[in-house]
Amino acid sequence: MAYSEIKISAYKPEGFLKSYTELVRKKMLPYQYRVMKDDEGCEKSGVFSNFINAAKVLKGEKAGPFYGMVFQDSDAGKWIEAVGYSLALSSDKQLEDKTDELIDLIANAQDKDGYLDTYFTISNKEKRWTNLLEAHELYCAGHLIEGACAYYEATGKDKLLSVVVKNALHIYDKFITEKKEGYPGHPEIELALLKLYRITGEEKFLELSKHFIDVRGADREYYKKEKESRNWSVWGNNAEDNYYQQSHAPVREQTDAVGHAVRAVYLYTAMADLSAETGDNSLYDACKRLWRSIVDKKLYITGGIGSVFQGESFSADYHLPSDTAYSETCAAIGLMFFAQRMLKNEVKGEYGDVMEQAFYNTVLSGIELTGKAFYYANPLEAVPGISGCTATHWHDKITRPGWHACACCPPNAARTISSIGKYAYGENNDTVFCHLYAAGEVNFSNGISLSCKTEYPYSADVDYKIKGNGILAVRIPHWSKNTTVYKNNSPISPEIKEGYAYIKASDNDEIRLCLDMTPRIVYPSEKLYNLSGKGAICKGPLVYCFEGVDNNGKVLNAFIDGNSSIEAEDFDIPLSTGTKRLKIKGYIRKTAEGLYSDKKPEIIPAELYAIPYFLWANRGENQMRVWMDIR
Ligand code: FUB
Ligand code: ZN
Q1: Does 582 have pLDDT greater than 90?
Q2: How large is the angle between the packed helices 329-345 and 409-418, nearest 10 degrees?
C-alpha cells in the first residue's frame, strides 16, 4: 500500500469545499431524510416505511406492501454513511437523532438469521438469493455496511455495525460455508466488506470480498443457469449479456471497461482496494488496463463515464455524445472511488487528476445549489424543448428534478462530498500526500499537521503551513504548464516523481504552490467524431460551459474565436461564492427564417461568456453547450 487514508475527522474543510460539506449537512441530508420518510410535499420514496413493514412481517403483524425499487434500502445505507462523515466534520444533534431513529427501524427489520433486505422480507421471502443478477440483495447489504462503518467511526455507536456484521456473517455462511454459487449482479458489497474487515478485523469479511471478486466471470454461465432455475424476474435482464454484467471473463483477465458503468467502477474499486490491501499485483495489473480503457477511450472531458442511456452503460470506444450523454452522477462518483484506490496502490498524478476532474465537474454538476434538486444524467449540451422531452433525450433533463424514482445519485453525492478529506489527503510514515487542493486543517496520524489556505478551484495559489517534520507530496496537475513551488518565500525545485512534488518540510515551514490556471481551449481527438471542429474552455480543473442566460438567450448558434484571449472575471451566481466566469470573443450565426434557406447566415461578432459547468442549470431553463464550434 503506497499510503493510508486519513480518518474523515482528521480534515476540517474551509473555503469552497466547506461550502459544499455544509450544503450537505444543512440542506441535502435533512431534505433527503424528509424524502425517505415520505413527508408531506416530498416525492414518495418508501424507504422508512419499507423497514417498518418488514419489521411488522417479522413480528407476524399485518404489514403494508413494499414500495419503490428493489434496491430501495440502499438509499438508507448511503444516507447514513453521509451522515456519519458529516458528523465527523461537525456535530449535529438533530441529524444524529434522526439517524438513530432510522437505525432502530433497520435493526427491527433484520431477520433472526441475520438476513436483511426489505424487498424480500416484506413479501418475497421464498425468493431470497435466487436472483443475484437483478435483485441487488448484496448491493443493499454493501451500502448498509458502508453506512454502519461511517456512523460507527463518527459516533462510536455500534448498533448498526452489529446489524451489518450479523448480516455479513449470514452472507458468509451462504456463499462460503454452504458454497452457494454466484456473485453480485451489482458489485458494491466487495468494496464494503473491505471496509468492514478493516474496522472489525474479522478475516471472514476479507475472504468473502476476495471470493466475490475471484469467482466473477470464472463461470460465465452462472447468470444463465440462475435465470433458468427461477420463475421470476425484476426487469427481465438478459442473463447472457456477460459484458453488461462484467462477467465475460475472470476479473484478472478483463481488459476493457464494459457494461453498466456504475457496476463496473464499483467492481474496479474493490479490485484496486483488494490489491492495495493484499499486494495482489495480478489484480492491480487488471485495474491498470481497465483504467487505461476508461481514461484513453471512454472519458468525458467533464470526468463523466457511461455515455449511453441504454443499460446506463459504457458504449463503444470514443462514443461520447454530448446532448444524449448519460454520464450518471453515480458513475463519476465511482470513478473517484476507483482513482482513490488506484492511488493507494501507486501515487501517480494521473489518478489524482482524474479524481479531481470527476469531482469538480460531473459530481458537483449532480447537485443544484439549493441542495434540493439533483441530476442523474449530466449532458454536455442542453436544448430546451428537446432535452428531457423527446424519447432520445428523455434522461437529460433541462433542470434538476427534486427527486428520482431511482434515487441512487443524491445520497451518493452527499456521502462523497462529506468524505472529501479522504480523497484529498493521505499519509504514510513520514510523508503526507495532497491529492486535491483542499483548504482547511489536517491532522495526520504520523504526527504531521498542516493548514491549507486556498481559493481553489477559482484561484491557482495554494499555501500550506506545516507542523512537524516530514515530506509533503503534492500533486502537480497535468494542466498546470508552469508550476512554481516556494518554501518560506524562496522558490525551490523539489523532486518530481510521477506527477507529485516531494518537498522536505520542517516544523513551521510554509510551502506555497503556484499553479498555472491560464484559461485554455482544449481540442478533442479526431477519434471523437462528433466533436470535430470543436473546442472546450477550461481553467484549472474546471470545464466551462456556455449558457443562454449569459449570452442573450442563445448559445447553440454561437462559435468561439480560437485566437481570442480569454479573460476571467468575478461573477455572482445566486447561492455560489467566488465564481469566475470567462469572456471570449466569438460570433453569432444569424440564419434566415424558415427551416432551410439558400441565404448564407449572417456572422455577427460577439463577446461570449462561460461559467463553470458544474454550475449550469441553476438559473432556469437554458440552452447549454460545453463543446463549441471554433473558428
Ligand atoms: O442499480 C442501482 C443503481 O441505480 C445503479 O448504481 C445506478 O446506475 C442505478 O441503476
Ligand atoms: Zn446514480
Answers
A1: yes
A2: 40
